[in-house]
Amino acid sequence: MNSFVFDVPVEGHYHTQWEAPSNIALIKYWGKYRQQLPQNPSISFTLSKCVTSTEIIFSPREDGVKAFEFLFDQKKQPEFHPKIQKFLKRITHYFPALQNHHLSISSQNSFPHSSGIASSASAMAALALCIVDFEKQFNSDLTEEAFLQKASFLARLGSGSAARSIDGPLMVWGQSEAFSQSTDYYAIAPSVDLHPIFRDYQDTVLIVDKGQKRVSSTLGHGLMKGHPFATQRFEQAHTHLNQIKTALILGDVERFIELTEAEALSLHAMMMTSNPHFVLMQPNTLAILQKVEDFRTQTQLPLSFTLDAGANVHLLYPLQDRIPIIDFILKELTKYCQQGQYIEDQVGNGAKKI
Ligand code: DP6
Q1: Does any ligand 1 atom lie closer than 6 A to the CB of residue 263?
Q2: Which pLDDT band holds residue 292 (cuts at 50, 70, 90)?
Q3: Domains parsed from the chain with CATH numbers
């Protein structure tokens, strides 16, 4: 991956701002090897309203000056420093100019930081986009496509799922026979003809637990090493990815529901059967899953759920069914949410330069 290495002249000064979206995996990434490479391919919907906006001022750095300063919501937040420091260190090989530039970084999220929504994907993607944008001022070989690939490549080194927070509406990360351009190194927006029903699919996130994650994703991924069901799980993800591709093209919502729910439960089954094990679903998570199933049976409306490595529930459904579904969410489901909190989002088209 040395084709991703590029240095800029020391005198480079630059100011840029990017907004990167969150994403929700339909086929889950769980398990990694070497430096943040996925053990199986994943596919996600890019979201549109949950975004991180990041501004960076790059300026030449004298010896002894610190590498970066960071503001979140206009305030100094030192608890974020180690993660940013680790990220910048990891990507310096690909962008040596980080050694002699100072980065003044300022970020904010469109969604509450303490909502239990993972913000690392959108945050790392926004940082990576600003950095590649700086490179672009000096690197005339960086085509639009190469720009997005490098941003995804760098974002991946910050957080695996961040590789998918660059473009949209669908992103595939990890080598898969179903998608010819796919690779473990960065995510791509596959050139499939996404059925119109999925182009504005809704994702309502029910905040069951606003707290810090009880197990970091990195630790969870690590537990897939030596996991008794790891091989079968990675094979299952490949099979599911093949199958969901067809469902997404045909607009086969029924198959989409089967696959996304099976993926969410497989992810949690992996966590529950690892050593040590983690049960991240809470009683309210299960109550919601039960109600969703009952609602679907009674109304025949295509409401389904997916989960990340936590207790919150993402509800997925077509825009055309929004009115009765939101009514159901408000009447029957928000009582299981912490302080009744939920976030309405929908499929989006990727990051934007501000
Ligand atoms: C359950 O991307 O947060 O959300 O690579 O260690 O930063 P790191 O992990 P992370 O893992 C997210 C896993 C998931 C499923 C997914 O988004 O595919």
Answers
A1: no
A2: very high
A3: 2-194 (3.30.230.10), 199-346 (3.30.70.890)
